[in-house]
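Final report, closing paragraph on structural work. Over the funding period we assembled a curated collection of sequence-structure pairs, and we close with a single example.
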Amino acid sequence: MRSIVSLSLLILALALSGCAVLEGTKLAPVAVIEVIMQKGVAPFEAHFSGVASHDLYGEVVSYEWDFGEGGSGSGAIVEHVYRNPGTFVVSLRVENSLGIQNTARATVVVKEKPVPDTPSGLVASVADDGSIELSWSDRSDDEEGFQIERSGPESGFEVIEITDSNMRDFVDKKDLEPDTEYCYRVRAFNDDGESDYSSPACVTTEAASEPIDDVTSVDENDVVTVTRTVMVDGDTITVEVVVEAKVELELLAVVEKLESLELSNGELTTFAVNLQPGDTLMFSYEIADSEADGGTVFGTIRAKPVDADSEILELTSTLE
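Its predicted structure, as stored:
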């Protein structure tokens, strides 16, 4: 009976005196911290619960938190955002209805957000149209894009393209010179920085094929003058034929024939009647750019003067 009276008097004395801390005594509440995910990447939102805290002689009435980096909170369940990396000791101080307190501690580890992993397996190859095709392996899932750099014979690596995320290939068509080696490298990036560069990949563009120089050939007799001009503009080969009458003509006909070449636009024949001296007959056509080595254009011009026999001219051009 004496022990019960003594305990009652102690509780009453504590209540009357306003004593707040008796940690380590049987009267102190039990503080318990539960952390959902104790590790994360900044900014890391940590969730804490003190619900499991309890008191043997009363009830827990207060939960005060110190998040270990200057922040604080209250309540049985709280959350806190750690914006910087580091190791933080979180403390929970609980107080029961008698004003007695106890503290529990837990550790939270926050790491820096990593930069993306380095792309690998970069391959460069020359396409049929002369462009350079790149492909690589995307080894990261948090990049915001890729930075593609190119070096040439007269320059170091320079950025030529910034792609979106999840890209694995790119086609370079920018200012490429024939028979020239180009080297490429790729790296991933996000808000926190850039990955290392991939291993470089180098490739040499194909040598330029010898262009067909613009060629003009002229043939004439006493009846007509024939001029054929072969003109090259990129992949377009144009043949222009001009026939000038030197005498009065009843009929003028031109027939062109192609050997190892293919007509892509225009007609290969034309004619005119009743031409006066100085009149001209002009027409043109286009030849498809062929991978075949060379080709030949044959031209036959038939001119019928008034009151005279027909005159025939043969004109040949060879395309190399």
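Confidence is low (pLDDT under 50) at residues 1-22. The longest strand covers residues 86-96. We thank the funder for supporting this effort.
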